[in-house]
Amino acid sequence: MILIGLGSNMTGPWGSPRTCVGRALVALDEPPLKLLKASTLIETTPFGKQDQPSYVNAVARIETRLRAPDLLKALRTIERAAGRERRERWGERTLDLDILDYNGAVVEEGVEQSSDAELVLPHPAIAEREFVLAPIAEIAPRWKHPLTGRTARSMLSELNPDKGGTIIRNGPVS
User: What is the DSSP letter of 126?
Assistant: First the structure.
C-alpha cells in the first residue's frame, strides 16, 4: 500500500490551500500514478512552527510502478508546479507531499535515494501526527505501521496534542 500525505496552508499558483490539495489529488491520478482513494480534507493547526495559518490536509492511497525514489521525484515535480519553495522546515507552503508508506518498505535515514532529498520510509513522524493518522484510519483502517505493526487508530489513541497538527475541522474545508 502506498500512502501519500498532502498539506497546504498558503495560496499559490493553484489557488487556495483547499483548491491546491484538490488539484494535487487530481495530479496523483495522472500516469504513472493512479489514485485509489483519498481521505476527507481536514483543517489542522500547524505542526512544529506555530505562528502560521492552519493547514488543509489529506492522505491519498495510490498505485504506481515507480520505485520509491522516482515517486519522490514525481511528488517534488507536483509540488513545484503548485508553487512550492523549500525555505524553512515546518514553514508555510503551497503544497507538501510526503510518502508516508511505500508498500511496507523500510529505508533508514542516511541512505541517499534521490538527488532531491533523502528518502526515509516509513515517514518517521507518522505516529506523532493526528493530521496523518486520522486520514489513514479513514481510508486504510487495516493499514499497519511497517516497523511497529500498529494501526493508525491505535497510534491515534496515544497522541500528544501539544505538538500541533490537531484537527480543527473534519469535512468540508473552505
Answer: G
Q: How many CB atoms lie within 10 A of CB 161?
A: 10
Contact 2, 102 (CB under 8 A): yes
CB 106 within 8 A of CB 113: no
DSSP state of 41: P
Question: Which uninterrupted H or E stretch holds 108?
Answer: none
Angle at CA of residue 121, ends 119 and 125, nearest 5°: 100
Residues with a catalytic annotation lie at: 84, 93, 96, 98
User: Which of the four pLDDT bands, split at 50, 70 and 90, describes residue 171?
Assistant: low
Listed in order, strand segments (DSSP E) in the chain are 2-8, 33-38, 42-44, 55-64, 96-102, 167-170
Supply the pTM of this predicted model.
0.89
Q: Give me the domains of the chain, ranges plus CATH numbers.
A: 2-170 (3.30.70.560)
**147-168: per-residue pLDDT in tens?**
999 999 999 988 876 665 677 7
What's the grid cell of residue 3?
500512502
